[in-house]
Write a structure and sequence with these properties.
This protein has a 3-stranded antiparallel β-sheet. The protein contains 3 helices and 3 strands; from the N terminus they run βββααα. By secondary structure, it is of the alpha+beta class. A hairpin with a 4-residue loop joins strand 1 and strand 2. It has a single domain (3-69), classed as Arc Repressor Mutant, subunit A (Orthogonal Bundle), CATH 1.10.10.10. Helix 1 packs across helix 3. 44% of the residues lie in helices and 11% in strands. The protein has helices at residues 30-38, 43-49, 55-69, and strands at 3-5, 10-12, 22-23.
Length: 70
């Protein structure tokens, strides 16, 4: 069963990346985006490394992480 999260930008599908939360339409896990930000990479650097992402995807990953930490 798919779960849609964060305004349809993040989803968890058991058939994609072992059900871990990923940016919709990609195999890029949310935790990777958060690790990159925590490691000091800017949004601009992440977008350059992963051109299939949009800034809204990075913001959705941050929102997702914040909700889990709450």
């Amino acid at each position: 069963m798919k779960k849609k999260l964060n305004k349809n930008r993040v989803e968890s599908d058991p058939n994609v990346f072992h059900g871990k939360a990923c940016i919709k339409g990609t195999r890029i896990p949310v935790y990777l985006v958060l690790q990159m930000l925590a490691g000091g990479q800017s949004k601009k650097q992440i977008l350059k490394e992963y051109p299939q992402l949009k800034e809204i995807d990075i913001n959705a990953a941050i929102e997702y992480g914040a909700k889990l930490a709450a």
